[in-house]
Specification:
The protein is α/β, with parallel strands linked by helices. It has two domains: 118 residues, Response regulator (Rossmann fold, 3-Layer(aba) Sandwich); 94 residues, Arc Repressor Mutant, subunit A. Helices cover 39% and strands 21% of the residues. The chain has a five-stranded parallel beta sheet with strand order 2-1-3-4-5, sandwiched between helices. Strands 6-7-8-9 form a four-stranded antiparallel beta sheet, with helices on one face. A three-stranded antiparallel beta sheet has the order 10-12-11. A hairpin with a 2-residue loop joins strand 6 and strand 7. Helix 2 packs across helix 3 and helix 6 packs across helix 8. The radius of gyration is 18 Å and the shape is globular. The termini are far apart. 34% of the residues are buried. It holds the Pfam family Response_reg. One of its GO terms (cellular component) is cytosol. Keywords: DNA-binding, Phosphoprotein, Transcription, Transcription regulation, Two-component regulatory system.
């Protein structure tokens, strides 16, 4: 299957350079110049990865992340001129998978996109999913339902939840989770893991949020069943 990249940047020269670099690598590429156009093309083009500038007219990159209707199978790499860790953590909280600070090397951007695509495509053949009470995690389709209702997860949220639920009672350090799920060093460090666990608990709701346990001073683990 041909992989599709959507490049979103209001600076035409930057968008064109990024698009050209990805096309040379064999990807199908479309571009958008503002947030509103990005949302429209995300719905029609259905890219596998969106390279998304944060500072744009009409709607910034953070708002695009908030308003995306379907994040299933879509990875997001944010581009920002800000080197403030608060801005980067905000992007991760909103579902971005990675970020780069301008100016950046196009070769690194392509490498990060390839790594992200590999993670999105990875599906453990021997592990089909998990069932706990009315929670159903199905790895091949990357789907989660609770009490029959679909729960929308970002690619990173799904990968983290699957890793923990498929290896119950296994304690992972934050560094291990960062390496296994993200595979790329973030300036946000292990705080990234904490943010995603918090978001997962909120999305799972009671009583399923209790499945994800904090092992103080170490990291996290998932229980085999609902906490009593």
């Amino acid at each position: 299957m041909e992989q599709k990249i959507l490049v979103v940047d209001d600076e035409q020269s930057i968008a064109s350079a990024i698009a050209y670099a990805f096309r040379r690598e064999g990807y199908i590429v479309e571009t958008a110049s503002d947030g509103e156009e990005a949302l429209a093309k995300a719905a029609s083009f259905r890219p596998h990865v969106m390279v998304l500038d944060v500072m744009m007219p009409k709607m910034n990159g953070y708002d695009v992340c908030r308003k995306l209707e379907n994040r299933s199978g879509l990875g997001i790499i944010l581009l920002t001129v800000k080197n403030d860790i608060v801005d980067k953590v905000l992007g991760l909280e909103l579902g971005a998978d990675d970020y780069m600070t301008k100016p950046f090397d196009l070769r690194e951007l392509i490498a990060r996109a390839k790594a992200l695509l590999r993670r999105l495509e990875s599906k453990p053949a021997e592990e089909q999913g998990a069932e706990i009470g009315e929670l159903r995690l199905h790895v091949p389709s990357r789907a989660l339902t609770v009490a029959g209702a679909s729960v929308e997860l970002t690619p990173k949220e799904f990968d983290l939840l699957a890793l923990l639920l498929l290896h119950p009672e296994r304690v992972y350090t934050r560094d291990e989770l960062l390496d296994l799920v993200w595979s790329i060093d973030y300036a946000g460090g292990t705080r990234t893991v904490d943010i995603h666990v918090q978001r997962l608990r909120k999305k799972l709701g009671e009583p399923y949020q209790g499945l994800l346990q904090t092992v103080y001073g170490v990291g996290y683990k998932a229980l085999r069943g609902l906490p009593s």
